[in-house]
Amino acid sequence: MAAAARALGTPVVSGNVSLYNETGGTPIYPTPIIGMIGLLEPDGLAPNGRDPLPGAAGVEGDIIALLGPWHDDPADLGGSTYLNEVHHLVAGRPPQIDLELEAAVQRCVIAAHASSLLRAAHDCSDGGLGIALAEWCVWSGMGIHGDDATGGRPAVIDHPVAVLFGEAPSRIVLTIASEHWDQMVALAEERNVPLFRIGTVGGASLTVLGVEVTVAELRDRWENGLERALATTRPDSPLGDQISAQVE
């Protein structure tokens, strides 16, 4: 933690770790929480300052790209949300972070934003690249379709589940106006940060990397998934009964 704070220049000011809490007689996973301080300097307060970027925004024809390394390795599923939710397994070693690369990726995004090259930027930390793309579609209300141009990424995906749901760090989904793509490529090359073209904004579906689902379906699952999950809570669970009653 100290090494990360030094590498990223981000002070840790507080924190808490819950190791022994229980809910409904069931133990929870250890949940470390780290309080940190950062500084956002909008226009007028700092040279080349910019207002914070949204997580999802764009217009038809914009390019969706991945800034950071391309990962196609089943080991990246260790400790992942996918492994827990789909296979009910808490196993494996979470992907390890390269702090030098992480700092380079973040600084590249800051530089691109300062040069007005980006419409949006969204991390891949919560569920992986597939979830980040799905969230982009839900939040923006627009679709993404894969391009024939791979933008440097491999033409063949060996482990699509790992690509979509592996939780390797140091990756950010960018939305870039098509006229700024060449500048973004040059900036990433200058800073020695990988950049891969994923798709183009347009249509009413997310159709990339082997995924094909409508934005309407994604939104329905996003907005109504919790209520449906609670409706299937085990009848012998007092906590489930309490939550279900509150929802109703």
Model description:
By secondary structure, the chain is α+β, with helices and mostly antiparallel strands. 34% of the residues lie in helices and 21% in strands. Strands 6-8-5-9-7-10-11 form a 7-stranded mixed β-sheet, with helices on both faces. The chain is globular. Residues 234-248 have low confidence and may be disordered.
Low-confidence stretches: 234-248
Q: How many runs of DSSP E, i.e. beta strands?
A: 11
The biggest sheet amounts to: 7 strands, mixed
Q: Give the amount of beta strand, in percent.
A: 15-25%
- What's the mean pLDDT score? 85
Q: Determine the fraction of residues in helical runs and give it as a percent range.
A: 25-40%
Distance between the termini: 43 Å
H/E topology pattern: HEEEEEHHEHEHEHEEEHH
Radius of gyration: 20 Å
By DSSP (H or I, 4+ residues per run), the number of helices equals 8
Outline type: globular
Instruction: Write out the strand line-up for the largest beta sheet, numbering strands in chain order.
Output: 6-8-5-9-7-10-11
The structure class reads alpha+beta
Note the main attributes of this structure:
disordered C terminus, seven-stranded mixed β-sheet, 248 residues, 11 strands
Break the fold down into its secondary structure elements and pairings:
Blueprint: H1 2-8, E1 12-18, E2 22-23, E3 26-27, E4 31-36, E5 63-67, H2 81-87, H3 99-114, E6 118-123, H4 129-140, E7 144-146, H5 160-165, E8 172-176, H6 181-190, E9 195-201, E10 205-208, E11 211-214, H7 215-231, H8 238-247
Parallel strand pairs: 7-10
Antiparallel strand pairs: 1-4, 2-3, 5-8, 5-9, 6-8, 7-9, 10-11
Helix pairs in contact: 1-3, 4-7
